[in-house]
Amino acid sequence: MPKSWLITGCSSGLGAAIAEEALARGDRVALTARDTEKLTRIAARYPSTTLSLHLDVTVPGSVAAAIATAEQAFGQLDVFVNNAGYGVIGAVEEVSPEEYRQMFETNVFGLIEATRLALPALRRSHGTFVNMSSGSGIATRAGFGLYSSTKFAVEAISEALALEVRPLGVRVVIVEPGAFRTDFLGRSMTIAATRLPIYDETAGGMRTLSESMSGSQPGDPVRAAKVIVAAVDDEAAPLRLPLGPDAHRNIKAKLDWVSADMAAWGDRTAATSFEQLEVKT
User: Fold this and answer.
1) In a domain, 158, yes or no
2) Name one Pfam family in it (predicted).
3) How many domains does the chain divide into?
4) Whole-angstrom distance, CA of residue 255 vs CA of residue 2
């Protein structure tokens, strides 16, 4: 049976690739964006199986309206993709509140509210959430700290959500992409306006890397979309999908680092409970 999808932020990038993969196999997709004009390319190719809806994840009313419209038009909503988001590059000290707070509004608070609003529909269909995290949601680096912190939050929210809703027949898939050839390092990534020379050798490297890599990332969004859609179909798919060899490499290095830290002081850090009082008989 064809599935019915709603994808936030699918005017380009991985969101658009997921939409096209689902549509190509006969599914129905509610395409959403803040500017619906950016959805015309996909909608024109699949006029009978798409809806183009305005949705701004920072405005709960627009999210609720899009969900209601999609569920009514399709009869049910089977897959909800939390894809809307963007990044800010800069050292923690360089990124201003105006820059990082809006990123949190979109990447974290917007995802929370969209998830809460979509839950009744997905409970009715025994559907699936696809939450777009990042390889940087587990393993960060200098210059990516505040962006990564939003994706660390997505990981925690999604992990808890999976435990809460699985008994209700709802699945969660966390997608952790590495560097894919989308506009993420272009339109979807901003650079902190403040630059402090003391961070040139650390966070400054991320500014340079983002400029040099934009448009030449090794990851293929089409191949990523095929893996994501396959995971939606497969009840036995894992909770986490690290996409790309760089994501696998960086996440493994992070896990090795954590294991080494635990082992280094394990005898001290584990022995912090109250000592058991000896009971005399």
Assistant:
1) yes
2) adh_short
3) 1
4) 38
266 within some domain: no
What is the distance, to the nearest Å, from the Cα of residue 275 to the centroid of all Cα atoms in its chain? 43
Active-site residue, 134 included: no
Q: Which CATH number characterizes residue 189's domain?
A: 3.40.50.720
Per-residue pLDDT tens over the stretch 34-61:
999 999 999 999 999 999 999 999 999 9
- Which residues span the domain enclosing 221? 4-261
Report the pLDDT value the prediction gives residue 218, as an integer from 0 to 100: 66
Token duo for residue 192: 């902190």
**Quick check: is 189 in a domain?**
yes
> Alpha-carbon distance 109 to 84, whole Å?
11
Respond yes or no: is residue 259 known to be catalytic. no
Catalytic residue among 125, 147, 148, 158: 147
- State the burial class of residue 69 (Cβ atoms within 10 Å of its Cβ: 0-12, 13-18, 19+): middle
Average pLDDT over residues 157-168: 98
CA 133 to chain centre: 3
The pLDDT mean for the chain works out to 92
Annotated catalytic, 147?
Answer: yes
Contact 162, 171 (CB under 8 A): yes
Say if residue 210's pLDDT is above 70: no
Catalytic residue among 151, 158, 199, 210: 151
Rounded distance between C-alpha atoms, residue 224 and residue 220, angstroms:
6
Q: How many CB atoms lie within 10 A of CB 273?
A: 6
pLDDT at position 272, please?
87
Q: Would you tell me the crossing angle of helices 13-24 and 221-233 to the nearest 10 degrees? A: 60
Q: Which of 52, 125, 133, 148 is catalytic?
A: 133
Q: For position 58, what pLDDT does the model report?
A: 95
- Bridge partners (DSSP) listed for residue 54: 33
